[in-house]
Specification:
Oligomer: single chain
Order of helices and strands: EEH
Helix content: 10-25%
Bound molecules: zinc ion
Largest sheet: 2 strands, antiparallel
Low-confidence stretches: none
Number of helices: 1
Structural class: alpha+beta
Shape: globular
Mean pLDDT: 82
Length: about 60
Amino acid sequence: MHEQGEAEPPPPASTRAEHQVTLTERGPFIAPRCICGWYGPARRSRPLARTEAAAHLAGTVA
Ligand SMILES: [Zn+2]
């Protein structure tokens, strides 16, 4: 069984994305990872992981 949960559509190739955070599920934990190499701590709360991912994006936008 493949449970994808909520699948987020990939951004168009034309988008200039230097940061793209994906939430990686590790057992009961959710860990945000970015293509820039950043990764957040594993959380049990998906909303919290999303918040930290958003904070990373917000903090890296010049
Ligand atoms: Zn990043």
